[in-house]
Amino acid sequence: MLFSTKLSEGSRVRVRSTLLKFGCVLCVSLLAVDTLFAATDLKVIVSHKSWAENLAELLRFVAEQYRVPIVAELVNPVPSHLVIESGQDTAIGLLGNVLKQLPGYKYEVSNGQTIHFYAKHVVNAKGNLLNIRIKHFTMPNNLSDFKLLLPAAINSSRKGLPPSGAVISGFPSSEMEKEKLQTRGELTAVSGRDLLMAVAEETRGFYTIIVLQDQNCRTDTCFDYANDHWFWGPLTATVSHDPIYIQQPRLR
C-alpha cells in the first residue's frame, strides 16, 4: 500500500482497505434495536423504530445500528427533537429524511463506505478545530490511542507547540483498543479531519461526533467546549441508549 505522508492544502488522506462486497441489498427485520446485525453496508435495509432525539443521538444511532462509520461536525445549538417515523430504510435513506428537517446540514459518502456529516457554514470556518493543520502526527498502534492523541495534537498545533508538548486527557476505550491501525509512521501537514476520515475508512470501526461552540471562536474556552463535546464510540457493541448531553456554552 502506498501512503503519502505529505499533503497539499485541501487534500485528504485516503486509506484503502479490502472490503467484502455484497451484490444484493440486504433486508433485516429487527424486533429489537438493541441487537446489531453482522453486515455493514450502506445498502442494508433495517426496520427501525420511531425516533425523537437530538441530532447527536440520532447520528450515533445510525452509526451503531447500521455499523457505518460516521464523522460528524455539529455546531451549537444542536438541533433537538428530530422526528423519524418508524419504518424500513437504509442508513443513507434515514439521513436523507433527517436532512429534510435540517437545511443547514449535509452529508457526503467518502470512498463508498464512510459518512461525513457536517454543518455547511462550519466545515470550512476558521473556528473549526478540525481545520487546524498538524505539522507532525505519529500514528499510534490502536484506535483508542488515536482517540486520545488527536485532540491533544490539535491543541498543541493551535498553540504553536511541538508534538512533545501535547497534554493528553480523556479515557481509553477497551473496545477501541482492540482495533489495530495499519497505517504507521509520521504524517506531516495534515488536518484533524483528514486523520479522522482516513482512520474511519481504514478501520470502519468507530463514529465520532464533535460539537463546536460556534463557527468563529478560537479561544481556549471554545476549544475546551468542543473537546468536552467530542463523542466517540466503537461499532462493535450494542446500540446505546444513554443520552448525549449538549451544554449551552458560557457567554464570552
Lateral arrangement of strands in the main beta sheet: 7-8-4-11-12
Under CATH, the topology can be stated as Phage tail protein beta-alpha-beta fold
**Shape, per Cα inertia axes:** globular
**Helix vs. strand class:** alpha/beta
CATH top-level class: Alpha Beta
Radius of gyration (CA) equals 18 Å
Helix count from the secondary structure assignment: 6
Number of strands: 12
Structural domain count: 1
The ordered string of helix (H) and strand (E) elements is EEEHEEEHEEEHHEHEHE
Mean of residue pLDDT values: 81
- C-alpha termini separation: 47 Å
Q: Write out the CATH superfamily name.
A: DotD protein
* CATH architecture annotation name: 3-Layer(bab) Sandwich
Point out poorly predicted stretches.
Answer: 1-39
Helical content stands at: 10-25%
Q: Can you summarize this structure?
A:
The chain is α/β, with parallel strands linked by helices and 252 residues long. It has six helices and twelve strands.
How would you portray this structure in words?
It is a single chain. The chain has 252 residues and is α/β, with parallel strands linked by helices. The protein has one domain: DotD protein (Phage tail protein beta-alpha-beta fold, 3-Layer(bab) Sandwich). Helices cover 25% and strands 23% of the residues. It is built from 6 helices and 12 strands. The strands form 4 sheets. Strands 7-8-4-11-12 form a 5-stranded mixed β-sheet, sandwiched between helices. Strands 1-2-6 form a 3-stranded mixed β-sheet. Helix 3 packs antiparallel against helix 5 (192-203). The model is unreliable at 1-39 (pLDDT under 50).
